[in-house]
Design brief:
Blueprint lengths: L2 E8 L3 H15 L4 E9 L3 H10 L13 E3 L1 H6 L5 E4 L6 H10 L3 E5 L6 H14 L3 E4 L6 H13 L5 E9 L22 H16 L11 E9 L6 E10 L4 E7 L7 E7 L2 E6 L8 E6 L4 E6 L7 H13 L10 H17 L8
Parallel strand pairs: 1-2, 1-4, 2-3, 4-5, 5-6, 7-10
Antiparallel strand pairs: 7-11, 8-9, 9-10, 11-12, 12-13, 13-14
EC number: 1.1.1.179
Pfam family, one: GFO_IDH_MocA_C3
Catalytic activity: D-xylose + NADP(+) = D-xylono-1,5-lactone + NADPH + H(+)
C-alpha cells in the first residue's frame, strides 16, 4: 500500500534541509511512502528558491511537483498541503503550530515544541479541537538502533540488569565569538543548552531507563545545575541527575562550551555496558554492546544513507493514514512530561524566559 503525504516545510534553515534530504532520498528510492514537498515557507523568496535548488527538490524526485516558495501566511492557506514540518527556532513554534492547525493542517514540530509546558499544552488542545495530528519531532525515538538496543537490553537481557546511564550532548560552539543576537546566546530566542540540546540527554534517560511513556511513565525525581552566563543570562552548561523509583540513575549533561565524549551514551548493566556513537548525539544510529570483560557482544550501525528523519516522517504518514491525532512512541503526554521537567530545572536554577 502506498501512503502519500503533501508536506510544507516551514523555515528554510539547516534542520529543515536535513529533513528534506531524507524525503528526497526516500522518493528517489520509490518506497511505499510518498513524501511530496509542496511548499517552502520562507520570509525571503530568493532564499526559498535557493533552498529548493540546494536540496535537489526536483520534479523527478518529488513526484512531478516543484514546490512553491510562500510566505508563512500563504503556506497556512495552501490547499495542496496536508502536513507542515516546522523547523524554525522554538520561540516561534507555538504561534506557527496553532496557525497550521487552525488552517486544517497536521503538524510535525521540531523540538523543543515550545519554551514551556503550558504553551505545549495549548498546541495540543487546539490539535484535539480540530482533530488534527500533532507531534513533537523527537526523531531520536524512531531510529531502528533504539528499538534494537532496547530489545537486546530489556527483552533478551544480553548483559543483565540495567543500573546507570550517562548521556551527553555537548559541543564547543565558541560562544564568545558569536553575536549576541545568535540563537545560541539570545535570551529573546530562549537560547541556552538545556532547551536546545539538553533535551536529548533527557530523552535518552526516558528511552533507555523506562519502557513506558507519558502518563504511564515510571516515576522519577531529578536534581540539576545550570551555569547561567553573566552576559547572556542563559545556560551554556547543564548537569542533571535522574533517579527512577526502581533505583536506576542517570547522569545527563549538555554544553555549548566544550566538546563531548565520542561515546555520548553509556548504559551500564550487571553483565556489561552499551556505548552509542554518532557524528551527532541526537542521531542514534550506532551502538556496541560489551560484556563485563570488554568483549564485543553486538554491534549495530545504520547504513541506510538517511540522515534519520525519514523514520519519524514515515511514522507520521502511518498515523495520519490511520486517522490518528498522536503517535504512540511520542504521544502528547510524553512531550508534556519532558517539558515539565525542563520547566522545573529552569525554576530550580532561576532561569526564566519571556514566555513564562
Amino acid at each position: 500500500m502506498t501512503i502519500t503525504l503533501n508536506w510544507a516545510i516551514l523555515g528554510a534553515g539547516n534542520i529543515a534541509a536535513q529533513f528534506v534530504y531524507d524525503l528526497v532520498l526516500n522518493n528517489q528510492r520509490q518506497t511505499e511512502y510518498r513524501h511530496v514537498v509542496q511548499s517552502i515557507g520562507c520570509s525571503n523568496q530568493a532564499r526559498g528558491s535557493e533552498f529548493i535548488k540546494a536540496n535537489n527538490i526536483t520534479s523527478e524526485n518529488n513526484y512531478g511537483v516543484i514546490p512553491v516558495v510562500q510566505s508563512y501566511q500563504e503556506l497556512y492557506k495552501n490547499p495542496n498541503v496536508n502536513v507542515v514540518y516546522i523547523g524554525t527556532p522554538h520561540v516561534f513554534h507555538k504561534e506557527q503550530a496553532i496557525e497550521c492547525l487552525h488552517n486544517d493542517k497536521h503538524v510535525l514540530c521540531e523540538k523543543p515544541i515550545t519554551v514551556n509546558e503550558k504553551d505545549a499544552q495549548e498546541i495540543f488542545t487546539v490539535a484535539k479541537k480540530y482533530n488534527k495530528f500533532c507531534m513533537e519531532a523527537v526523531w531520536t525515538r524512531f531510529f531502528p538502533a533504539i528499538q534494537i538496543v532496547k530489545q537486546e537490553i530489556y527483552q533478551t537481557k544480553v548483559i543483565g540488569e540495567v543500573h546507570r546511564l550517562f548521556a551527553d550532548l555537548s559541543y564547543n560552539g565558541d560562544v564568545s565569538s558569536l553575536p549576541a543576537s545568535s540563537r545560541v546566546r539570545d535570551r529573546k530566542l530562549a537560547a541556552g543548552s538545556l532547551l536546545d540540546i539538553g533535551i536529548y540527554p533527557i530523552t535518552y534517560a526516558r528511552i533507555l531507563l523506562d519502557d513506558k511513556v507519558g502518563d504511564e511513565h515510571t516515576s522519577f525525581k531529578h536534581k540539576s545545575f545550570l551555569t547561567i552566563d553573566k552576559e547572556d543570562q542563559v545556560d551554556h552548561l547543564c548537569s542533571i541527575l535522574f533517579q527512577y523509583k526502581d533505583g536506576k540513575q542517570a547522569v545527563l549533561t549538555s554544553s555549548e562550551l566544550v566538546d563531548g565524549p565520542k561515546a555520548y551514551v553509556r548504559l551500564e548493566c550487571t553483565g556489561g555496558w552499551v556505548e552509542m556513537y554518532s557524528d551527532n548525539p541526537a542521531r542514534a544510529n550506532h551502538f556496541k554492546i560489551f560484556d563485563k570483560t570488554g568483549g564485543l557482544v553486538l554491534e549495530y550501525k545504520d547504513d541506510s544513507g538517511y540522515n534519520g528523519f525519514i523514520y519519524e516522517a514515515n511514522a507520521v504518514a502511518d498515523d495520519i493514514n490511520r486517522g490518528k491525532i498522536e503517535n504512540d512512541v511520542m504521544p502528547h503526554k510524553e512531550t508534556l512530561l519532558v517539558m515539565s521537567v525542563m520547566d522545573s530545572i529552569r525554576k530550580e536554577n532561576g532561569l526564566t524566559y519571556d514566555q513564562d
